[in-house]
Amino acid sequence: MISKVNLSEKFAQFDDTWSPKVVGELNEAYVKVAKLEGEFVWHRHDREDELFLVMAGHLTIRIADQPDVELDPGEFVIIPRGVEHMPVTDGVVHVVLMEPKTTVNTGNVVNDRTVPTDQWL
Description:
Distance between the termini: 17 Å
Radius of gyration: 13 Å
Strand order of the largest sheet: 6-3-8-2-1-9
CATH class of the domain at 29-102: Mainly Beta
Shape: globular
Strand content: 35-45%
CATH superfamily of the domain at 29-102: Jelly Rolls
CATH topology of the domain at 29-102: Jelly Rolls
Largest sheet: 6 strands, mixed
Number of helices: 1
Order of helices and strands: HEEEEEEEEE
C-alpha cells in the first residue's frame, strides 16, 4: 500500500539527537530524519554521497579546506563521498537525510555516536 509520511509527526516521536531514524526507502537509499544539537565529529563517507535538508533551525556544515555551508529551513546540501565534514548547530535542528542504505552516520569514525543499526519509525 502506498502511504504518505508526515515529517512533523515523525519528528514528534523522538527527542534523542544525532541518531537518525528511517522513515522511507527509495531505490537503494533511505530517507531519514534526525535531530541535531551541538557539534558532531569530523568524518567522511568513502562510498556514499549524503544529502542534508533542513526542516527547522540553522545548520552549519564545516567542510575540510572549504568555506562552511550555512543552511536554513527549506535548504539542502549534498556532501560528496570522500569529503570530510562536521555538522554543527547552535540549537536543535531538524534534518531530513537521504543517503544509500550502507551509510553509517559517523562514516569512517567509530565512537559513541555511531548508530550501529537503522531504526525505523
